[in-house]
Amino acid sequence: MIAADIRDRIDAGRLKPGDRVPSIRKISVEWQVAHATATKAMAILRAEGVVEAIPGAYTVVAGGPGGGRGRRDNSRERIVLAAIEIADAEGLDAVSMRAVAAKVDNGTMSLYHHVKGRSELVDLMAETALAGNTPVDDALRGRARLESAARSLWATYRRHPWLTRFDIGGLRALSWLAAHGAPVALGAAEQGKGSMTALHYWVLLHGLVRGLASDLYGEKAESGAPGRCEGEVTDLANEAEVIFDLGLRRLLDGVAFA
Predict the structure, then answer these.
(1) Any idea what the CATH number is for the domain that residue 117 is in?
(2) 111 and 199: one domain?
(3) What domain range is 99 assigned to?
(4) Is the pLDDT score of 97 beyond 50?
(5) Do 6 and 49 fall into the same domain?
(6) CA–CA distance from 14 to each of 23, 32, 39, 103, 184 (Å)?
(7) Which one of 28, 38, 104, 107 is at 20 to 30 Å from 59 when CA atoms are compared?
(8) CATH classification of the domain holding 39
(9) What burial letters (b/e) apply to 39-71, b meaning 16+ CB within 10 Å?
C-alpha cells in the first residue's frame, strides 16, 4: 500500500523526476508503520526503477538530473526502439511493459514516465517504424515516384511484419504514401479525374503492399505460405519479391499518369 501510494503521487504529477520522496522516517510516521516496513516499501520502488537513491543524501523519483540510474539513456526513443526490436523478433504480442523494461535494463514503472502504457507504446512503435521508410527521390515524378514510394513501404512491412496488424485507419501508411506520391494527384487533376481518383490509387496501392506483406510475412505466416505448382509445394515467401513486383507493375499499368 505504501509503495502504491507513492506511485500514485508520481503518476498524478505531485512528485516529478528528481523530486525527493518521503524518507524512511517520514513514511514510518505518516503510515504509522515500523521502520522495517517503510524500508521494504522503498526497496520495492527502487527495484522497480521508480525511485533511486542519491549516495550519501536522499531518495528521489527516477529520471531527474541528480540521479545515476535516471541519467541513463532511458528516453522515450530508446524505449520505443527496444519495443520494436522485441516485436521484430517475437511478434507484437510479445511486447509488454515488463519485457521492454527488461530490455532497457530498468524497472517497469520507470517506463511510465515516458509512455502512458502499452497502447501508446504500440502507436509510437508504428509511427517510428513508418518514419524509417526509405525517402523517395524528389526528382521522381508520376508513376516512377509512386512506384518508389510503394517499394519503400513494402520494405518497411518486410522489416516489421507486425505492422500488417494495423488496418488502414490504424496506421498512417496511407497518409505517408499519399504525401510521397503527391505528384500523382496533380497528374489526375490535369486529366480531369480529380484528387479523389488519386486517393483511390493510393488505397489500392496500399492494399497491395500491406496485403501481400501480411500474407507472406505477417505474424500468421511465420513459417511461410505454402503454394502448390505442378504438383510441387513451394514456400511462397521465397517468391515474395517476384509476386510483389508483378502485382505492383500490373497495378501501375492500369493507372494513367501525366
Answers:
(1) 1.10.10.60
(2) no
(3) 76-130
(4) yes
(5) yes
(6) 16, 22, 22, 28, 52
(7) 104
(8) 1.10.10.10
(9) eebbebbbebbbbbeeeeeebbbbbbeebebbe
Assess whether 111 and 204 both reside in one domain: no
The pTM (predicted TM-score) of the whole model is 0.61
Phi, psi of 128 (to 5 degrees): -65, -45
Which one of 130, 150, 175 terminates a domain?
130
Confidence of residue 182 (pLDDT cuts 50, 70, 90): low
DSSP H helical ranges for the chain: 2-11, 24-31, 35-48, 76-90, 97-103, 118-131, 142-159, 173-180, 182-190, 195-217, 240-253
Q: Which three cell numbers stand for residue 143?
A: 508513376
Co-location of 246 and 138 in the same domain: yes
Count how many domains the chain has: 3
Coil/strand/helix, residue 244: helix
Position 160, amino acid: H
Q: What is the pLDDT of residues 130-153, one digit of tens each?
A: 877 777 777 877 778 778 888 888
**Range in 100-109, 119-128, 159-168, 179-188 the model is least confident about:** 179-188
Nine-digit cell string for 55: 549516495
**Helix H or strand E encompassing 228:** strand 226-229
Give the distance, in angstroms, between the CA of residue 161 and the centroid of all CA atoms in the same chain: 12
Same domain? For 48 and 142 the reply is no
3-class state of residue 234 by DSSP: strand
| Residue 60 backbone phi and psi in degrees, to 5 | -130, 165
Domain presence at residue 204: yes
Predicted confidence (pLDDT) at residue 106 exceeds the cutoff of 60 = yes
pLDDT-derived band at 95, boundaries 50, 70, 90: very high
Residues in the chain: 258
Residues 154 and 215 in one domain: yes
